[in-house]
Design goal:
This protein is about 85% helix and about 0% strand. The chain is an all-alpha fold. The longest helix has about 35 residues, at about 5-40.
């Protein structure tokens, strides 16, 4: 149990940040899964839409500091290479 008032506040802030980060990470994972399923089913139009939204969500998560910048760029490169192979 924390002793300082500021420690209680930091615990509250950490909980809020954790729930926000989990929500965004879950959304990213589900979009990535839908994207890979669209690639496997050779649905080019659907894969392009999902790929574009996935790239923008990755960039936003990177800007907010939710995921590391190298992780975001690695995932982005893999998405774009899969889209390039699909064409």
């Amino acid at each position: 149990m924390p002793n300082l008032k500021s420690a209680f506040k930091s615990i509250r802030k950490d909980k809020k940040r954790h729930t926000r980060n989990q929500k965004i990470n879950t959304e990213l994972k589900s979009l990535a899964k839908k994207f890979t399923m669209a690639i496997a089913a050779k649905q080019a139009d659907e894969a392009k839409k999902l790929g574009a939204t996935l790239v923008t969500k990755l960039d936003k998560a990177r800007a907010k500091g939710i995921i590391h910048r190298n992780t975001a760029s690695r995932k982005r490169a893999r998405i774009l290479s899969k889209l390039a192979k699909l064409r």
